[in-house]
Amino acid sequence: MIRRLALVGALVLSLAGCGARVAGDGDRGGAGSGGGHYPVTITNCGQEKTFDRAPRRVVTNDVGITEIMFALGLADHMAGYVMPDDKGDLDGVPWKDGYRRTTWLSKERITKELVLDARADLVFAGWNYGFSEETGLTPAALDRLGIDSYLLTESCRNGRNGARGVMSPLDALYTDLRTLGKIFDVEERAEKLIGGFEEQLAEAAARAPRGKDRPRVFLYDDGRDKPLTSGRYAGPHDIITRAGGDHIMKDLEDSWTTVGWETVVERDPEVIVINDYGDTTAEQKRSFLKSYPPLAGVSAIRNDRIFVLQYVDLVESPRNPAAVATLASYLGRTGS
């Protein structure tokens, strides 16, 4: 049973399904109290929720979110995951056993019908990572079905016209690991993961360029008329910065967003990082960048300094620290 603390002024919903009710409306123990660990109260994207037990049938959306669950050893708490089949090789990843043990529910988008068919008691997704007013799949819509939700912290909205991001990307990853660790009673496992990531980042920092040697770096996701890129609250910002680069879009207070090509040309990146996923291959993206006339004078294009990382490296995921190490090695070799 899940009980949630109401936000100030929020409408109190009477939920069936997984038995959600407003915290403070009765006893705080109950069945499944988990030997003293439960109930636990967490804050997720500004909203407090209280769990009387660990969710048992979680549905995740997208690869980074799914691998957060796998990294925490929570495959047994999952009903399955949803993601396209354009996210690279899943057999060689550290959490391949999680993929083998968990059902791939759909390679299309996540829907309310899919969640109901899976008998989910919690959906772990994010704004623009499955949750969207346009599709009708939102935490509020799930509430009305008696299904709880957990929002990816990278996707938290910050109140600026739908912009996303409330903290630096690695802090978002650590926040989700610690919060989910509390929800599922695996806090020690979460801290061990974070400790390992911090060691990995420290080793990368020793190889990374510093000071005047830090090259200007631009993240290119896709887009011809306008490039989709990363602001300061998406994964690439911390990945580029921790790897010894100067992220040229660090002033954008958003996560994933579009800019004009004129801004890219003006800021003259010395390295371009390509986000590899989707129907357009990394090589096709590279060919476009090298042949697009407005970019001809940009340092990264003139010197052919284009580096490729996978989608899951760049969205919030447990692969972020390894991506820092990989990029740090590249930037350390190329210089500025």
Automatic annotation (TrEMBL):
List the Pfam families. Peripla_BP_2
Regions crossing the membrane: none
Give UniProt keywords alphabetically.
Signal
> InterPro entries annotated for this entry?
ABC_Transporter_SBP, ABC_transptr_periplasmic_BD
Q: Which PROSITE patterns match?
A: FE_B12_PBP, PROKAR_LIPOPROTEIN
Fe/B12 periplasmic-binding domain segment(s)? 57-336
Q: Does the keyword Heme apply?
A: no
- Residues making up the signal peptide according to the UniProt record: 1-23
Can you tell me which family this protein belongs to? Belongs to the bacterial solute-binding protein 8 family.
Name recorded for this polypeptide: ABC transporter substrate-binding protein
Species of provenance: Streptomyces desertarenae
